[in-house]
Amino acid sequence: MTDKYTWYGHGAGGLELGGHHILVDPFLTDNPAASITADKVPADFILISHGHGDHVADAVSVAKRTGATVISNFEIANWCGAQGAKTHAQHLGGGHQHPFGYVKLTLALHGSAFPDGSYGGNPCGFLITPASGKKVYLACDTGLFGDMSLLGDEGIELAVLPIGDNFTMGPADALRAVKLLRPKHVIPVHYNTWGLIAQDAGAWAKKVQAETGAQAHVLKPGESVTI
Ligand code: NI
Ligand code: MN
Questions:
Q1: Is the dihedral of CA 11, 110, 214, 95 positive or negative?
Q2: Ligand 1 centroid to 113 CA: how many Å?
Q3: For residue 13, which phi and psi values (nearest 5 degrees)?
Q4: Which neighbouring-strand residues pair with 198?
Q5: Ligand 1 center to residue 111 CA distance, Å?
Q6: Which one of 18, 63, 126, 192 is least enclosed by Cβ atoms within 10 Å?
Q7: What is the pLDDT of residues 158-196, one digit of tens each?
Q8: CATH, domain 4-226, list 3.60.15.10, 3.40.50.300, 3.55.40.20, 3.90.940.20
């Protein structure tokens, strides 16, 4: 079993950890960059970072089809649970040992209202410690924040960071985030879905290589990195 991260386009991705499939922010059906469809994507667990439509999108339908457990904040877990999904609620700063690893909900500077305007709690990122001990940090939608240095103290193997700008960190702040997080590997996401968040990820990766100790992996949707 090889642990890996696959980018599905935008903020959507799939982790394979210890043979478990962990689906992250499944925005597939209406995602022009999606590399997989909601009726095919594998999931044993689904992580949802916040209530925005480009993150909760296909979560409930995939949860119902696969029987996957949705892991999210209390408000989003309740929202998905009311629609028939299996859920596990946590909240910021809290961790829990799941079959694929220990998951801690981390700070994110963003919003979290659901598409219908109802309250989605606080947005979050995820710090996952799988059986291998190689920690994965999913920043999800966020601006730069100084407490990323506290996450860096944990020893991160792989960080998945937004670089699209406008709604999240742009390339310059994402580069500063790499310096605070000090991961061994970094993958840029949440860009090039639409013109508004178009970015030159290759140029960003060169700066990461030149200015930090991290190895940057620029993926096309559907491509993976082994952890
Ligand atoms: Ni968002
Ligand atoms: Mn988003």
A1: negative
A2: 9
A3: -160, 170
A4: none
A5: 6
A6: 18
A7: 999 999 999 999 999 999 999 999 999 999 999 999 999
A8: 3.60.15.10
